[in-house]
From TrEMBL:
SUPFAM superfamilies: PLP-dependent transferases
Superkingdom per UniProt: Bacteria
Class of the enzyme per the UniProt entry, highest EC level: transferase
Recorded family membership: Belongs to the class-II pyridoxal-phosphate-dependent aminotransferase family. Histidinol-phosphate aminotransferase subfamily.
Organism expressing this protein natively: Methylophaga thalassica
Keywords: Amino-acid biosynthesis, Aminotransferase, Histidine biosynthesis, Pyridoxal phosphate, Transferase
Gene Ontology molecular function: any one: transaminase activity
Domain Aminotransferase class I/classII large: 34-357
Pathway: Amino-acid biosynthesis; L-histidine biosynthesis; L-histidine from 5-phospho-alpha-D-ribose 1-diphosphate: step 7/9
Protein's name in the database: Histidinol-phosphate aminotransferase
InterPro entries given in the database record: Aminotrans_II_pyridoxalP_BS, Aminotransferase_I/II_large, HisP_aminotrans, HistidinolP_aminotransfase, PyrdxlP-dep_Trfase, PyrdxlP-dep_Trfase_major, PyrdxlP-dep_Trfase_small
One Pfam family hit: Aminotran_1_2
Length: 364
């Protein structure tokens, strides 16, 4: 007997999410030292000093359960975004929130729409709950909103849209998204995944749209621009009734007291956030210039990573980079077998990657 026979069909056939290779694993497997990791879209600056100090204070209460309602963090988020605390759902990273949406609002027989080259978690949560994925064809490596609208049926419950998109970094203009929302039936939830939105200097913020589109859910995270990936804290903004239903499937104490304290501190550190944007912008220009010098095509990105076409089997290039102590991300599982996704690092890390890539491709 196989225990897969006992599991629900969606789980038995599920291919789990594959994270970026940890530095420690590379050191252990390859015996490589002085490793740089440009694989998981982490902030190269490290966490904000204010967040580190907040964690140190909160650590004194590790024997206590965290605030299950996240009062202080919700209050800080409500003030920043000018929403009511009742519109906020906290998650163990935004992945947790995405799963809550799926579990609360879809099931067997329902359809969930997302795009080709979209974040892998959308497909994973869809399959795990027994819903049917509807994958629309990408346009210029990003979302084709017209194709998504045409794919809506009587069975559609949820649409996932990442803006900027991961792993391609493509971005939709706000007015295009608003026009799309106006055409979507009210009974279909639209999840606007904005994990990388802090890297943009947007003139139009999506949060006020919640007043007009009650079927809109906006998800964000502290893992990227705020430098708290190791603590896992994300959140969503939505209609209060939607948030209430999501909170019914939320696991108790899903965000630790350390994570909540660090997130509150990071949220108030605007200087750190601006430094993050500055480093990212400079690093993006550095990588783009390097790719153009090597004659490599790349997908223009508005996030903290860029996806480049190495014009050969990207996994083999990825593997050779590992021997050079450089970890990036192959994205064949996203339908891009000749592309590598590279997180923006510090200037010296970016240059080391470019030098290693040039050497490897030159040998080929």
């Amino acid at each position: 007997m196989s225990f897969c026979d006992l599991a629900v069909s969606g789980v038995a056939n599920l291919q789990p999410y594959v994270p970026g290779k940890p530095i420690e694993e590379l050191q252990r497997q390859y015996g490589v030292r002085n490793v740089i990791k440009l694989a998981s879209n982490e902030n190269p600056l490290g966490p904000p000093k204010a967040a580190v100090a907040a964690v140190a204070m909160a650590a004194k209460e590790m024997a206590r359960y965290p605030d299950g309602n996240g009062y202080a963090l919700k209050l800080a988020l409500a003030e920043k975004h000018q929403v009511a605390p009742e519109q906020i759902t906290l998650g163990n990273g935004s992945n947790d929130v995405l799963e809550m949406v799926a579990r609360a609002f879809a099931g067997a027989g329902d359809e969930i729409i997302f795009s080709e080259h979209a974040f892998a978690v959308y497909g994973i949560v869809t399959q795990a709950i027994g819903a049917s994925p509807v994958v629309t064809q990408a346009k210029d490596y990003g979302y084709d909103l017209d194709a998504i609208h045409k794919a809506i049926s009587s069975r559609t419950k949820i649409i996932f849209i990442a803006n900027p998109n991961n792993p391609t970094g493509t971005w939709l203009e706000p007015e295009k998204i608003k026009l799309f929302l106006e055409k979507v039936p009210e009974k279909v939830l639209v999840v606007l995944d904005e994990a990388y939105v802090e890297y943009l200097n947007m003139e139009e913020n999506s949060v006020p749209w919640l007043q007009d589109f009650h079927n809109l859910i906006i998800t964000r995270t502290f893992s990227k621009a705020y430098g708290l990936a190791g603590l896992r804290v994300g959140y969503s903004l939505s209609h209060p009734e939607v948030a209430d239903l999501m909170n019914r499937v939320r696991q108790p104490f899903n965000v630790s007291n350390l994570a909540q304290s660090a997130a509150v501190a990071a949220l108030g550190d605007e200087a750190y956030l601006q430094q993050t944007r500055d480093v990212n912008q400079a690093g993006m220009k550095q990588l783009v210039a390097g790719f153009e010098k090597m004659g490599l095509q790349y997908i223009p990105s508005r996030a903290n990573f860029i996806t480049v076409n190495v014009h050969t089997n990207a996994f083999e290039v990825y593997d050779e980079l590992l021997y050079e102590g450089v970890i990036v991300r192959p994205v064949a599982n996203y339908g891009l077998p000749q592309h590598l996704r590279v997180s923006i690092g510090l200037a010296e890390e970016n240059q080391r990657f470019l030098d290693a890539l040039s050497g490897i491709l030159g040998r080929g």
